[in-house]
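thread: overnight batch results

M.L. [08:02]
morning all. the overnight job finished for the chain we discussed friday. pasting input first so we're all looking at the same thing
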Amino acid sequence: MLLKRIGVAAGLAASLSGAEVQAQTSLGTAQSFAVLGGSTVTSTITPGTVIGGDLGVSPGSAITGFPPGLVTPPGAIHAADAVAAQAQVSVTTQYNALVSAPCTLDLTGQNLGNRTLTPGTYCFSTSAGLTGPLTLDAQGNAAAAFIFKIGSTLTSASGSSVNLINGGNPCGVMWQIGSSATLGTTTSFVGNLIALTSITLNTGANIIGRALARNGAVTLDVNNISFAPCTAAGVPPPPPVPTLSTWMMIVLVGLLAMAGFATLRKRKTYDLR
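M.L. [08:03]
and the structure it wrote out:
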C-alpha cells in the first residue's frame, strides 16, 4: 500500500510538471534572438540601445542605429538572411501555439497593474494596459508558465514594471499580442513579447526577455534588452521527479529502520523480564 501511494504521488508530480512545460512550445531557432522585426528595426542614434542576444529582421532588411547601438557577443546581426527568416518561422509557430492555449482567467477590461498573479493563462479579448507594478509569483517553481493572450494592443504607462518572484524564470513568461505592443518610458518588463505587428519601446524601457515582431517594425530608444536562456521546451527544466528505484530505496531504508526499531523494542522487553 505504501509503495502504491508513493507511486501515485510520483505520477501526479510528473504530470503536473509536464503540463506546465507543455503549456509553452519551443521558440526554436528564435531562441537566440533578443530582438526580431518583420519590416525594420530602428534605434535612436544617441546614446544607443544595448541588446544581449541576436538582432534580426525578416522579410524586411533595414536595421538602423547599430552602431552606436550595441549587440553584445555572442549576439550577431541578421538582416534578411536565412537565419532571420527561419527565426520568423519559429516565432509564427510559437505565436499560433499561444493563441490556442486555453484561458485560466479572462481579464478583459481590467488593468494588469497592482496585481499579483500565479502561473496560468490570462486572456484579454481586446486591448490590455499596465499601469504600475505587476507581480508574477512562480511559487517556487522554476518551470512556472505565465501566458498573456491579448486580442489587440498592449500598452504600459511610464514607470510600470513586471516583477517575477519566488523562483520563476523570465523565459516562462509569454506575451501574445494580437496587433502591437508599446512600452512606456522607463518601463521594466519581463517576458517574451510576440506581436503580430509591431513593438515600440519608449525611452529607457528595458526588457528581460525578447521583443519579437512578426510583420511590422521594432522601434527602440535607449533600451536594454537581454533574454534568459531557455530549454528546447521553451521553459527552464522542471525539478527532477524521483525515479522508481529512488522511491524503492527510500521505502527500503524506512522498512529497515522500522525493523530495527521493532528488534530493539523486543530486546528491551526481554531485558525487563
